[in-house]
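Data deposition worksheet. Section B asks for the primary sequence of the deposited chain exactly as it was used as input, without tags or linkers unless they were present during the calculation. Section C holds the resulting structure in token form. Section D is free text for depositor observations; keep each observation to a single sentence. Incomplete worksheets are returned to the depositor.
Section A, Depositor: J.P.
Section B:
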Amino acid sequence: MAGAPHTTDDSKDATSPAGPQGRSWSRSQPMAFYLFALVLVILIPALVVSLVLLNRNNRAQEEVVRALTNATVQAMGQSVEREVAGMATTLRILSSSQELAENDLAAFHERAVVALAGSGSYLLALDRNFDQLLNTRVPYGEPLNRTSNPKIAAEAFERGIATVSGLFFGQTAQQWVFNVLLPIPNGREVVLLALTRNAANLAATLQSRQLPTGWHAALVDSANLVLAATADAGLETGAVLPMRQAVDRSPDEWRRERFDGDMVVTSEWRSGLSGWRVIAWASVGTVERPLGESLLWLAAWSVVIAGVAGGLALLIAQRVGHSVRGLRRDAQRLGRGEPVVPRDYPVTEIAEVSQALVNASTKRLAAESEVRFLMRELAHRSKNQMTVIAAMAKQTARGAEDVDSYVQAFERRILGLARSTDLLLTHGLAGVLLAELVESHIAPFCPLDAARVKLSGPMVRLNAQAAQVLGMAVHELATNAVKYGAFAGNSGALAVRWRVVDQHLDFNWRETVPPGLVVSERVGFGTTVLQSMVGRSLNAEVERHCHDDGMEWRFLIPLSAIDPAATPAPDQEPASE
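Section C:
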């Protein structure tokens, strides 16, 4: 509503923390927070990358283990297959013997015993009823029973080619055996020859190849009966292997199955000659152990690195926090106007800030000292100026013919005094430039023709007292030049020159007046300022010379009296006439 008083909501400021100028610091955090955050920002991506690399490395290792395992399993199977193929070859050789052709079974038995000695294989001869006619496990002529596996014998007879049986229990051998059978097409009495071998003998062939650590293998027939197994597999010959029972799947595929309550990875090789399979397996933990160990090492090192980095971050935070608190104390000293001393800080940037505070403190103290000096000087000058103004008023009144001329003369002198004060306040302790002082005081009186005025001299700085006294003197000289001297006519000239000679400032004011103008010998307030005040206040030698063509003033002032770095002597009050 128009005219409604403007109100502010102070409730928020009354409850929320605020810093200087009402700025809220509720979201600020200590240095340790940001350093720990930095450590996490660095460590977390590194850990993620490490995990990705470990996973890729684990996969590569798995591929290597898979290739190595498959190759070893294949080599095992090929070794067994060579054994079986050798048995088939032996059968072919024996089937071509003369004794068999002549049906001399006794001689054939003797020949087979000699030929198979030390091979671990035994020869069987079967008739059409699959009864044993001979068996080299026993002497020739002993009564023999029908073959223990007539089913495979019938299959071999029908196929007409060498056939490998599965595992079965041999009645004659009284242990687990397998047969390789070869039909004899033209046999008069013998229609099948078979080589039988104890299945346990295949264990040596199976173990001729070294599997990777933690892997086991077993040789099984088409019914998954174990013919042989590696020593650490824990399987007996004739046991049923509960893995890889589906023979219609790809043998090269790695599969996960459960075995004895443990999850295992399996690999398989399948024989094209016998239909047997070599199955290898290892626990999933064994296969994945490298990744698990790598993860454990990564976790351990991550904890170590995080601990070291966190400790360093805490140490750095403490060092930086201590330094920052030192800066805060220095800033508070600077705010109170106290001197700030330089300190050593471990961080370069903080040390630079500390040095900046020291410099700022030094400058502030110097500025405050200068301000105090100027204030004291101003008070002192003000008192002196009151005395000077009173004397100027009295002296001006004596020479004035009417009120207007009095006001003009008095005003010009006041303005000249004011210009000296302005220059003093502008330059402060650095000092007032003499050239600037002279130029500012004669500028209001200068003729239009600038060539009539010449200023020359080196750069000289004046302290406050010298600037005020010389300023008043130059003002009076310029006033007199307008009234009686170089600026009274249209052809007069002024030359102001100064130089430093023997630790003195030699200041020369030379006026050249136009022809016919008489130089006044009158002594007024200006003469009093020039001779009495300048001489006594600045301990100067003052000379006044009247020439035929004009007036000359010369001031020989000791440099110690005008030095801005020197303490000026107490001002002398101007003498009044």
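Section D:
The radius of gyration is 63 Å.
The longest strand covers residues 175-183.
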